[in-house]
Design a protein that fits this description.
Elements (H helix, E strand, L loop, with lengths): L5 H38 L5 H42 L2 E2 L6 H14 L5 E5 L6 E4 L7 E5 H6 L2 H16 L2 H34 L4 H13 L3 H44 L2 H11 L10 H4 L20 H12 L18 H4 L48
Parallel strand pairs: 2-4
Antiparallel strand pairs: 1-2, 3-4
Helix pairs in contact: 1-2, 1-6, 1-8, 2-6, 2-8, 3-5, 5-8, 5-9, 6-8, 8-11, 9-11
Length: 399
């Protein structure tokens, strides 16, 4: 599907994501087939490879309805209880307007401006700078932010982060990512189960009998064509590894491809690319949630957990995301930012080269504002002073 603009990119991404999720679900049957191969070898160790493959195919057909029911049951359980699981891991608690008036008003203003139903608002007590959206339907949607994020970011930056998470909800990213995590969890669970069962059985069988009996049995199996059992086991192990690897790659592809669109959606909501850029620069390398699982970190604005050669990184780098906002949204990159005094316990040499007293001013500079215009360009519009209200966007006070 060709993509020419933001909305066609979203539609194209959804189409590709649906195909990826369908392929992810098929990996469950690949694991069943691999498990059937191992079971056939354990029952009859003197047959040919063709025999094992044929018998495993028959076993897969017989086990197909049971595997489907088990996977569907797992998805149903996760559908109704995944938010409780996330809250138990992160410690996020729902807040009201009275408890968090600043945060609640920012989110409510964004929702009203675009006619978006108000999701639940949660705050988790953590010095990390991060936020994530969760939920599979309108009643479950929730946006969770850390207390560290509220302390370190100004109103415009928090608004940009909330717009990022609302875009994930609007585009259906949250549902797809949660489902992908659920299915990948099924693949990982069955893969580990079969692998442990196979290693335990092979260890027990190798410990039986003396060395002479083992060598004579091995020669008898080889003479009867038992080499096919070894090949079948190798195929099964390869299928286990392939299913696990593909499940991780698909899950990461879904996450990486959607972060850039969420950044663009935040700019569309707030009309303030500089706020999104400065928020990313402050969050950069400060978003690690120590008690969170990898599945939760994959839902966050930034995931500092990186894989080998960036292959298994769930998010694009902050540099690449900022570069896209500068190129396509007209934003300005201030470079790595230090946090205000007391907002971060990191030493100054780890926080970034820019001192705290040089942080961007509260009034944003974006393509809709003449502030900070380059030399030779049109003269800047004289500032009339800050408007009253909780925050000021590039078009004035949001009502």
């Amino acid at each position: 599907m060709a993509a020419y603009g933001l909305y066609t990119h979203i539609a194209s991404n959804k189409f590709r994501s649906t195909l990826l999720l369908a392929g992810l679900f098929l990996l469950i049957y690949v694991l069943v087939f691999a498990g059937a191969l191992v079971g056939e070898v354990l029952m009859r160790s003197d047959k040919s490879v063709d025999y094992y493959l044929m018998r495993a195919s028959h076993d897969l057909i017989a086990a197909f309805p049971y595997a489907t029911i088990a996977a569907a049951l797992w998805i149903v359980i996760a559908y109704f209880f995944h938010q409780n699981m996330i809250d138990a891991v992160t410690g996020g608690e729902s807040v009201t307007r009275q408890q968090q008036p600043r945060l609640y008003n920012l989110l409510e203003n964004l929702c009203i401006s675009r006619g978006i139903p108000m999701p639940k608002l949660k705050v988790m007590d953590s010095p990390a700078l991060n936020a994530f959206a969760s939920g599979l339907n309108q009643r479950q949607y929730a946006v969770t932010v850390t207390s560290g994020l509220l302390a370190a970011l100004n109103d415009q930056e928090i608004e940009a982060v909330l717009g990022h998470e609302l875009t994930h909800i609007r585009n259906g990213d949250v549902q797809l990512m949660v489902i992908a995590v659920i299915i990948a969890g099924v693949v990982g669970f069955f893969g580990e189960l079969f692998f442990r069962m196979f290693t335990n059985l092979s260890w027990n069988s190798s410990g039986r009998g003396g060395s002479s009996s083992s060598s004579s049995a091995s020669s008898d199996r080889d003479s009867k064509g038992g080499g096919g059992a070894i090949i079948a086991i190798i195929i099964a192990v390869a299928l286990f590894l392939l299913a696990w690897l593909l499940s991780q790659v698909v899950k990461l592809a879904l996450s990486r491809s959607r972060e850039l669109l969420a950044d663009a959606g935040s700019v569309e909501l707030t009309k303030n690319p500089d706020a999104m850029i400065s928020a990313l620069r402050k969050i950069e390398n400060r978003g690690e949630l120590p008690g969170a699982t990898s599945a939760v970190m994959e839902l966050c604005v930034d995931n500092p957990r990186e894989g080998f050669a960036d292959l298994f990184a769930t998010h694009p780098s902050v540099d690449s995301r900022v570069k896209a906002l500068v190129q396509f949204a007209g934003g300005h990159d201030p470079g790595p930012l230090a946090l205000p005094s007391g907002a971060d316990d990191e030493p100054d040499d780890q926080a970034g080269p820019q001192p705290a007293d040089q942080l961007p001013p509260p009034v944003p500079r974006g393509p809709w504002s003449n502030a900070g215009a380059p030399a030779g360009g049109p003269p800047p519009v004289p500032q009339q002073g800050p408007l009253p209200g909780p925050f000021q966007g590039p078009w004035g006070r949001r009502r």
